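protein under study:
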Amino acid sequence: MFLSLFGAVESGAIYAIMALGVYLTFRVLDFPDLTVDGSFVTGAAVAAISIMNGLPPILGTILGALAGFIAGCITGILHTKGKINALLSGILMMIALYSINLRIMGQPTLSLLNDSTLKTQLVSVWEKTGIDGVLNNLLSALGLERFPATWGIVIFMILVIIAIKIIVDFFLKTEVGLALRATGDNQRMIRSFSANTDTLIIVGVGISNGLVAFSGALIAQHGGFADVGMGIGLIVIGLASVIIGEALFGTKTIARATLAVILGAIVYRIVVTFALRVEFLDTGDMKLITSLLVIVALVAPKILQAQREKQRRLKKRAALPMEDIKNA
């Protein structure tokens, strides 16, 4: 039970970076970008092939994020300069990236089990600190089996997510960030202020896919492999994280919205993990579970709002004099 919960938080923390990228396009830019299904794999593929060729894991991860940024920029260019529909631009780039990713990898799957990755390095450093012994004794006192050896990864990912969240929050409050948000709200209005909306869209979609690719690079190192099909359906997972986070934690401010997206990704992984523990469900039902979660997250707030509105009307009606009610 504890290990399952821990694993869900661990993977959710990494996918939270991808969810932030999806948030930038779908919520900030109002751009339905499907490139993420391909750019996620691009980040994983570039990081994996870089590590296998002797580059330091951190450098391979950065190169993976840069490759995702370039892919996102191309999607933006197709839409703004090529005048292609936003949804179609993402689909075209996603399809192109499938072949590009195969070219990068040279084969459908690459294994990193025999290479030094960020995960192995972090686990090694964590073990040398000796904190595991103290934590294992604490868990024994609580009746739990042992402390996961990858606890250092969770701490590292929390620090990385906090840093990325601070940077994203700061960026969205700068002049360029405000222009980016205004572009998502009303392109015609922001264009009247002499802002170059084409450049803003290209940069925004590029940053989004850079974050997605960064997450893909980390997932590849976390799982020990990169696969050409690991990004299929990822956009649904990203949207589920965004929608669940917004429904549970609200979006009154930018800082709160980005925090909601991060927590939404973690909640999503926890729910899926425990759902798969049900006897009649298996890993093949993961897409179905994701779809149901999104449906619930979309429908539930509207039902609750309708009920609150109904109660408000009843209270207002009860407060009226009897004569006014009869006349109504």
